[in-house]
Write a structure and sequence with these properties.
By secondary structure, this protein is mainly alpha-helical. The chain has one domain. 78% of the residues lie in helices and 0% in strands. Helix 1 runs antiparallel to helix 2, helix 1 packs parallel to helix 5 and helix 2 packs antiparallel against helix 5. The chain is elongated and about 50 Å long. The model has no long low-confidence stretch (mean pLDDT 82).
Length: 186
Amino acid sequence: MSFLELFLIAIGLSMDCFAVSLSFGAQKKLKRNDILKFAFFFALFQAVMPVIGWLAGSSLKYYMEKVDHWIAFGILAFIGLRMIYESFRDPDEKREVDIREWKILLTLSLATSIDALMTGISFGFVKVNILLAVITIGLVTFLNSIAGAWVGERSIHISPRWAEITGGLVLIGIGTKIVLEHLSII
């Protein structure tokens, strides 16, 4: 898997964190240390979860070689479609929470990183430099989380919907590319 593909996956995975950061930034109550703290936790969880998934996926690779590309596509497409679906949920259903509370921060970090776990499983089926993937995903997530909070602080009202849709489409595109490469179409 090329660096460009890893970078695009990192952007796709970090869009949930961007959207969450955007909404918390829009509350205009956060200090710089608060933003750095939640950006760090989002990045840490986004970086660690693919390793866990990669270990699980790698251990199953021998048994799954004939369908691994379809599994990788299915996982990435499912995650992408779920992100797109979630982007259309009614924002009024969400109550205001304080990300500075440890319980909230850890819960959000885990929730936004489930996609990264599933992506890590797909990494176990394709040739990927897991260290490069982890660093790329962590760094992109950290920067996107800070950017989301910054944009949210400076906006009157920005819907995070577009970020989730874009992230979902990127993940579906990467999954499609994996299948097409395996089938030797591209």
